[in-house]
Automatic annotation (TrEMBL):
All copies of domain UDP N-acetylglucosamine O-acyltransferase C-terminal, residue ranges: 236-308
A Gene Ontology molecular function term of the record: acyl-[acyl-carrier-protein]-UDP-N-acetylglucosamine O-acyltransferase activity
Taxonomic path: Eukaryota, Viridiplantae, Streptophyta, Embryophyta, Tracheophyta
Keywords per UniProt: Acyltransferase, Lipid A biosynthesis, Lipid biosynthesis, Lipid metabolism, Transferase
Record-linked SUPFAM superfamilies: Trimeric LpxA-like enzymes
GO cellular component: membrane; mitochondrion
Domain of life (superkingdom): Eukaryota
One Pfam entry name: Acetyltransf_11
Entry-linked PANTHER family: ACYL-[ACYL-CARRIER-PROTEIN]--UDP-N-ACETYLGLUCOSAMINE O-ACYLTRANSFERASE, ACYL-[ACYL-CARRIER-PROTEIN]--UDP-N-ACETYLGLUCOSAMINE O-ACYLTRANSFERASE, MITOCHONDRIAL-RELATED
Protein name: UDP N-acetylglucosamine O-acyltransferase C-terminal domain-containing protein
Entry keyword annotation includes Protease: no
Statement: the UniProt record of this protein carries the keyword Transferase: yes
Amino acid sequence: MLRIGGILRPLSAVTLRCFSRTFSSSYVSEKSSVDALYPSFFHPTAVVHPDAVIGQGVSIGPFCTVGPSAKLGDGCQLYPGSHIFGDTELGKQCVLMTGAVVGDDLPGRTVIGCNNIIGYHAVVGVKCQDMKYKPVDECFLDVGDNNEIREHTSIHRSSMSSERTVIGDNNLIMGSCHIAHDCKLGNNNIFANNTLLAGHVVVEDYAHTAGAVVVHQFCRIGSFSFIGGGSVLSKDVPKYMMVSGERAELRGLNFEGLRRRGFSDTEIKSLRTAYRKLFMSIDAKSGSFEERLAEVEQHEELAHVPIVSSMKMVVEFARSGIGLALEEMLELPKNNRIFKLVLMTETLILQSLLPS
């Protein structure tokens, strides 16, 4: 690793244009890797603090800023006018497009994994917008690997030292999205333009939001779910489900998403059968919800579906008014992860559909 100070010298407009042309031609495609064996390149107008730790093959463009506590991995690229502040670490092969800002001069830390792209004028790892936050408190953001964060997106650090804002791996966060303080995002999610997540939202894996989705704080979005465009979520979204609406409502199973993610026809058929029996039985002979649940549990094709095996306990929680916040405090067996996941993601649908 190299420690190198920036050089800032007066240059005429003509000279700057020449440097810019030379520098731009040295860039490779955003998705291409940079040979870390090449020496690092620093544009003369870039300001790189002498204490910054810079890897091999790093390119820092015109008018960039790299603070004293920054650490850049091998092969990182900073396009013109991008900035890194505070205690911020970038893994190998990260790309900051023009105008991107990463990190903040606040107590705490921002950690970005490898092979991440941060788009034009995106703001990542800055102070949260929680009125309870105190500037003396440490705040944190952890981002995994292979994420693409597009233009004008904002991602905030946590609101307290005991929490972290977390983004997993392989997520696509499209333009003008907002990820608020203390959110927890899993892996392989897609957030279309203008998706807004309030504080403490949890998104599991392989979820997909269409454009202009608004999610209320503390909501949970289950794995393999789909949120229709323009939806406003004030309650949890169960896994495998599709919801939409100005006040989002259940619209059915996310069949297309399940097929794309490799679910077998047998698995999809089992989910479809359970869904219809539980939530679409409207004739007089369908019986109470408990009777329908018992019928599904005894169904030979559904006996091994995890969502069915835990339904009875979910009904008890839903009818007693125990929500997800209280459920988190329950002492469930540590080895019963499947039950806990299903319990958390299915409680809402029962609360909204069961009779009072």
